[in-house]
Amino acid sequence: MNKVSSLAVLPFLVFLSLFIGSGLYYQSLGTDFAFYQIKAPVAILPAILIAFLMVKGSFNKALDTFIKGVGDNTIITMVLIFLLAGAFASVMKSIGAVDATVNFALASVPSSFILPGLFIISAFIATAMGTSMGTIAAIAPVALGVSEVSDIELVLAISSVVGGAMFGDNLSIISDTTIAATRTQGCEMKDKFRMNVKLAIPAALITLIVLYFAGADSQLADVGDYEYILILPYLAVLALAVLGINVFVVLFSGLLLASGIGYFHQETYGIASISQDVYAGFGAMQETMLLSLLIGGLAALMRSEGGLAWISAKLQALVSKLSDLGLMQTKAGEICIALLVALMNFATANNTIAILISGAVAKEIAEKYQVSAARSASLLDIFSCVVQGLIPYGAQILLASSIAAISPFALVSSIYYCWVLAIITLCFVLFLWPREDKR
């Protein structure tokens, strides 16, 4: 009989307490990026120590369980994808592809379409780059400049960028949230992408309409030059992803194409430069990779002592209560998956961490209540991104508000895309998604 123990959840609560507590402390001191002063891979170490002490049996047994969790096939696959994604993003930035893409997108925007244009630009770049933070860092200064030379409200300009960045982060095949969601749920990248598109596109269209009427009378500032060839790797990655090509092939192909363009198109960009940029990309993923490995080990220890079974039992009890109220069990399971990752994101202020923590329990709920793997992965990614785009202490909001020198609390109320996406997804879960009797 499998263990079920609420006490086995203690290590996880310790991790959250350290992570959140340190963030609140530094926030009280007025420190920028308060929730990121104590790195998550460090904050999780005391939790792992406690988990080791709680395991019944020898230390060697606990260590073996931990190592098996770290070396789980899903975790290792995720780490390898992170490496390739980081290398691709690093090379693209170094050869000037990010700036070229920004300028190309801006040059294509009609003057009466500034706010929707900022959203579309951010969405495209975030989808191609796989990072909302990188997108905000690149486009928020542009939005700031646009607001200075037009009558567009600064909050609306910046919130358009954040909304588009969250759209792309949610859909991109090289986003760490997408990678984490698909790998933890065991579904194909293309299936999760197609599921997400059905929800993200309507939310984006509604957002574009709102933004159009909010800035229809504005004018656009001048933009810089760009070269079409630098945009090609992004387009290639997007096309291969839509065609359903294996993610390793997609990322490696994009990396080769970007490196080749840099090598043959730029005189000063040689083999040494490519090597350095690829390695820098690996380094940029260090925190996420370390956290993935350590969470895999911690989850294995908690599972062995019945902690994950206890969380799953509580959520299944919620499913039963919702079913008693007349809600189909599959839909109740989907709501619980969404609630689980949303609560984890509120607690950790990091959508990737939230997905990694929630993944194992979400998969168990999905399997028991006949929720397809693609739906489960989609719900994990959507609601983690929704919450991440709306909490004033999240990195994306803090970065955007610091660039624009505005209050993060003023910003979150104007990020229409996240609000609309949450509403549309809930409507799909409750009224539009049919029941799936097999995975």
Q: Would you write up a description of this structure?
A:
- This protein has 439 residues and is an all-alpha fold.
- The protein has a domain at 7-54.
- 76% of the residues lie in helices and 0% in strands.
- The chain is globular, with a radius of gyration of 22 Å.
- The chain starts with 9 loop residues before the first helix and ends in a 7-residue tail after the last helix.
- The mean pLDDT is 81.
What attributes does this structure have?
single chain; 439 residues; mainly alpha; 76% helix; globular
Question: What order do the helices and strands come in, and which of them pair?
Answer:
Blueprint (H helix, E strand, L loop, with lengths): L9 H19 L11 H15 L4 H12 L2 H22 L2 H11 L6 H16 L2 H17 L5 H18 L4 H10 L3 H26 L17 H11 L4 H19 L5 H14 L1 H19 L2 H18 L4 H20 L2 H18 L4 H16 L6 H10 L3 H5 L3 H17 L7
Helix pairs in contact: 1-2, 2-14, 3-14, 4-9, 4-12, 4-13, 4-14, 5-6, 6-7, 6-8, 6-10, 6-11, 7-8, 7-19, 8-10, 8-18, 8-19, 9-17, 9-18, 10-18, 10-21, 11-12, 14-17, 15-16, 15-17, 16-17, 16-18, 17-18, 18-21
Quote the distance from N terminus to C terminus: 26 Å
**Which blocks of ≥5 consecutive residues have pLDDT under 50?**
none
User: Helix- and strand-based class?
Assistant: mainly alpha
Largest sheet: none
- Secondary structure tally, helices: 21
Query: So what's the overall shape?
Result: globular
Quick take:
76% of the residues lie in helices and 0% in strands. The chain has 21 helices and no strands.
